[in-house]
Each structure stands twice: as C-alpha cells, then as structure tokens.
Amino acid sequence: MQIGITRNSHGRALIDLSIGTTHRPLSTVYHPMKENGMGKLLLEHSSSEHSCVEPGVLVVDDEEKVARFISIVLKQIGYAPVACQSVGEARKQIEAHRWSLVITDIVMPHESGFDLMRWIARHYPQLPVIAMTAHSTAAIENQLPKLGFATILYKPFTIEIVRQIVQRIVPIETEMA
C-alpha cells in the first residue's frame, strides 16, 4: 500500500491510497491544512463535513457476478461500491454506513427490490435508488415511479450505460471549492 500526501492550491491535503503498482488512487481524501507557526504544514482536525471521500454506492443483487461487475465498473470511475446479495444484508449496510446511492435488483428471492425501496422510503427518504431488472413488464414499470426509484437500469447493460446513469444521479466532484 502506498500513501501519498500532497497540497493542492486550495490549502487542502490530498491523501491518495493505492495498492501495488497501480497509479490510480483507490481512495482520495481532501483535508484542510494549516501552518504550525514554524513553516510546517499540519493536517487540521475537521468534521466529516469538511472532508470528501468517494461516494459510497450499495449494490444489491442476488446474482453475485452481476453485483461484482457493477462494483468493478463503479470503482473504476471513482465510486466506493459495496455489494450484497439480499435485502436483509442491504438493510444492515444502510443502517451501518452512509450511502450516496443504492442500486438494487428488483426480482430476488425472499424479499424484492420493491420491499427494499419501501423500507428506504420510510427510513432514508433522501437516499436515491436505482432499480435493475431483466424482467421488464408493465406492472414493474408502473410500480417504479410510485415507489420513488430514481431510474431503472435494464439488464443486460453496458459499462457506459452504468456510468452515465450513476454519474447523472451522483456526480463525482472533481474539485472542492
């Protein structure tokens, strides 16, 4: 693991974490800096509202390969994805962590993406949710807007479609003001 700390023009430290020989950071944290009076720069202690990390995206699909594929795509374009295979596991993740977006399959065993969306709407109404389905029917299409899904991702999909949809809902901030 390599950790690189540089100062940008806004007086913030850019802390890049990477593993192995990859030059693309796995994570970047922007953190305020101050001088200690002796010409040295120190990281300021700040609350999470002053730091910026990659937006967290929870991917929920009972098909592990699909969840893993979406996670890889999201990581490559700058998000911090976590995959899970059930609605129950997704609820635990949502309660335990702060998320910028949830992408959920609709048709899953036991509980559906509709069940997850109803729960999110009750407990985390500001959390955007993208529905995924390979089973597009009129009934499913009619339910999506009523439940508050941000949009739908139809399987099969391309990397470019995933990128466009996710970046439209949760844009990656390239620079902090």
Task: Please describe what this structure looks like.
The chain has 177 residues and is α/β, with parallel strands linked by helices. It has two domains: 49 residues, no CATH class; 114 residues, Rossmann fold (3-Layer(aba) Sandwich). It is built from five helices and nine strands, in the order βββββαβαβαβαβα. Strands 6-5-7-8-9 form a five-stranded parallel β-sheet, with helices on both faces. A four-stranded antiparallel β-sheet has the order 1-2-3-4, with no helix packed on it. The radius of gyration is 19 Å and the shape is globular. The chain starts with a strand and ends in an 8-residue tail after the last helix. About 25% of the residues have low confidence.
